[in-house]
Amino acid sequence: MNYLTRRLVTFPLVMLGVSVLVFISIRLVPGDAITAMLGTEAGLLTPEQRAALEAYFGIDQSWPVQYGRWLLGALKGDLGISVTFGKPVLDVILERFPLTLELALLSMAIALLIGLPAGVFAATRNEKPSDLGVRIFAMIGQSTPNFVVGLLLIYILSVGFGVLPVMGAFTPLFQDPLENLGQLILPALTLGFAFAASVTRIARSAMLDVLSEDYVRTARSKGAPAMSVLWRHALPNALIPVVTLSGVEFGYLLGGAVIVEQIFALPGLGRMVLDAILQRDYALVQGSVLFIALNFMIVNLLVDLAYAMLDPRIRLGDR
Amino acid sequence: MTPLLSVSDLHVGFGRDPRASEIVRRVSFDLAAGETLAIVGESGSGKSVTALSINRLVDYGGGQITRGSIAYTRADGRTLDLAQASERELTKIRGGEIGMIFQEPMTSLNPVLTIGEQIEESFRLHRGLTGRQASAAAKDALDRVRIPDAARRLKYCPHQLSGGMLQRVMIAAAISCNPRLLIADEPTTALDVTVQAQIMALLAELKRETDMAMIFITHDIGLVAGIADTVMVMQSGEVVEQGRLDTVLDTPQHPYTRHLLSAVPHFEAGRAARTDFRRPDTPAAPALKVEGLTVRFPVTSGLFRRQTGAVHAVDGVDFDLMPGETLGIVGESGSGKSTTARAILGLVPPTRGRFSANTNLREGQGSSAVQMVFQNPYASLNPRLRVDSILAEPVIAAGRRVTAETTQRMTQLLERVGLPKDALQRYPHEFSGGQRQRLCIARALMLNPSVVVLDEAVSALDVSVQAKVLQLLVELQQEFGLAYLFVSHDMAVVERIAHRIAVVYAGRIVEIGDATSILSKPKHSYTKRLIAAVPSIDRRHQTFDLDTRQVPSLVRPLGYEPDPAAWQRYGPDHKALAEA
Q1: Which of A172, B24, B388, B473 sits most deeply, having the most CB atoms within 10 A of its CB?
Q2: pLDDT of B451-505, one tens digit each?
């Protein structure tokens, strides 16, 4: 029985805990689905009609019974029916997820492609003007809110160059890759900007630590050229904090990026969850939170596996 | 004949204004091919900076050569001034013509690359070998430094090998391209004595085989004797004496050299042992009695953490310690000597066995009869506490109140250990290493203990400081009738402070008895090996034999019990474990 299987065993337990918490907390919010759906017209419903609606959505029973029913269904792969979409919850989530996943992957790729070289470069120029430049840029990137970056990008492209991003629709990647990228590149840049800033800062400080290690001196004493010292000897040792940070950020992004989705009018997971909460769409909230939690655990697992790959001293088996 | 290396008037500075803060000044020396120069000095003497300037690694540590030249004669006969050489030229020379090994083999190898990759790198860089050729060359290099089972070890990562093995790997990588000069910066300081002897023997053999010149940096003037042709003594950045080995050692001219030679405790095979204490003939109450002390750490495996074995760190240790007596515990790292000390203080729970400190020797002593002084005075004082809080700590830990009397005792003790009066209001960083260790000693004495455990208490100190702290310990012992348990790997130091010695090997005492008898007439083969490994000026012309034996694994299967100890007596107070 290895580390991987042991970790997989804990997944259902965590999911169970998450589902109970979500179940209770969403129901502690005042208001109900019928009122949220019909607005003031809900007052026109006869008690019989209301009861029939509640029975249709399965919210007529006591909480424990509702939870038990929901759990039984979930075990069979049925997460219930979304009140707002009138479709199975799982279908609604799976419709939205490809966009969120793609957006998260793109942002991370941008962040690593910019952040790693910038951080490594800044570390080698420690305290020199170019290091200061990178650090100021990273500071700006981290402290500027997403919506400002997003709006700036739209403004520059539409007013400055007259090209507006295609908004409000989502073309799946395999249907038309070019159009898909055209829709996603700006939001990915917006998210990747702040992400890249964090990566830069953490890569820089980790590299600074590693560059003063004895084994870097050893590599130099062997006559290794500067580039080889940086990328082959130092960087692998500095990657662990970068992986940790990227894992956490990526996990968050998989839960949807509400503000960026709003600005670029993208149908992602984030806006869907927000709407579901506002609409008291209990089944959809529960299902999506569970889905997000599962994603997070998978990302954490991947991060742990990456640790073991990066550093042979980390053995996942015996801990 | 032009020398291989000719350094003249070398100045090296650090910081923003290197000229204003020169760490090394006016250093000049010549080194011929095949010769060995030893640079000796205490920490801060500039010896490492001098060495790092030669292959210009000092540039990466914020240093800069401010004056002087380093004329290096290349293999083709051309001379190159390394002080002015470009980075491009230097990368060719580093590793290819000048190899270097460092003090800490544990941290000097890259933890994420395999041993093989790190040795192959030199061949790739300087010989242009790739793929299978490079790995074959790396295997040969490991064979050359006598690493058994080399082909398999190539795939190991550094954390899977011991310190001595890693230093050999370092040497293998450094000499892989047959450099004409090897710079060794304290290569054995972090290693055990027997391992040190192995590495020294290896370096001597390689020197004979390859005719390579060597710069050997050390703080241990005793170690120099076995390997150097010429010696250079440095003090605060300047050379105070240099010359042929025998001249410097036999007729030292400069007072500092004489001081170094006399400050270093030379091992004298029991002749320097203390004679100021005799065990009473009639049985008396010991200050500390240890019976069958056993410490095992479980080894688990599998999903349910089933115990499959145990590390037998300490296995059935017995001894007693009289008031006013010092028992030296000697052994190598991993032999269980520190675990024994920790168990006696209750820092590690013993698996079995008893130990009892006599709590009736002093008034109101209770459970605080045993106190401890640790190895590293930099790490064992909380940097955020003032000295008065540090000294109050044991009192508070014993559940007592800090009163005017406590403060009075603090002042008395500080004065007694030789620290200034205003020390109470200061912080640890305001003191030097030796002063800090004095602070630790004062802290240990706060509760008026009868037994003090000194775990490598002087090992981290410079030699001249070491001598003074040892002297202080002896005085305090005589004054307060303290019993010391002195744990150390350094035979020469132990000889000067111990009345009795216990030699620990693989978790067991293999020989115990009075110091003179054990050091002059060792009986157990391990004790003999340990003593033979001590470097000494007197034995400088003897050659070392290469002994590659490793300390046996202490991991035993579940339920394993060692054979009961069979002692053989060699004198009134000298016994050793009988050997098969």
Answers
A1: B24
A2: 899 988 887 777 778 888 888 899 989 888 888 999 888 888 888 888 999 998 8
Cβ-defined contact of A215 to B109 (cutoff 8 Å):
yes
Gap from B554 CA to chain A (nearest CA, Å): 19
DSSP-based three-state secondary structure for B51: helix
Rounded mean pLDDT of chain A? 85
β-strand pairing of B36-40 with B63-73: unpaired
Angle at A94 between CA A147 and CA A27, to 5 degrees: 75
**Structure tokens, B461:** 């100190």
Indicate yes or no: CB of A215 within 8 angstroms of CB of B300.
no
Could you report the per-residue pLDDT of B149-188, keeping only the tens digit for each? 788 888 888 888 877 788 889 988 888 888 899 999 888 8
**Burial of B355 by CB count in 10 Å (0-12 exposed, 13-18 middle, 19+ buried)?**
buried
Q: Which of B495, B506, B504 minimizes the C-alpha distance to B470? A: B495
Q: How far apart are the C-alpha atoms of A153 and A189, rounded to whole Å? A: 9
| pTM beyond 0.90, yes or no | no
Question: With contact defined as beta carbons under 8 Å apart, do B316 and B565 qualify?
Answer: yes
Chain B residues inside the 8 Å CB shell of A223: 90-96, 122, 125-126
- Is A221 close to B94, i.e. CB distance below 8 A? yes
Strand order through the sheet with B555-557: B352-357, B288-301, B306-321, B555-557
Tell me which residue has tokens 């003063």: A212
Q: Please work out, in degrees rounded to the nearest 5, the angle formed at the alpha carbon of residue B285 by the alpha carbons of B281 and B287.
A: 115
Closest by CA position to A138, among listed A78, A198, A86: A198
Chain B partners within 8 Å of A220 (Cβ): 57, 60, 94
Report whether B291 contacts B357 (CB < 8 A). no
Residue B556: closest CA among B294, B342, B337, B354: B294
Helix (H, G, I), strand (E, B) or coil at B508: strand
- Cα separation, B364 vs B448, whole angstroms: 9
Pairwise CB contact (< 8 Å): B111 & A313: yes
Which chain A residues are within 8 Å of B122, Cβ to Cβ? 222-223
Contacts of B113 in chain A (CB under 8 A): 233, 236
CB contact under 8 A, A222 and B121: yes
Position of tokens 């109050």?
Answer: B392
pLDDT tens across B224-283, in order? 877 888 999 998 888 999 999 888 888 889 998 888 887 777 777 767 777 777 777 767
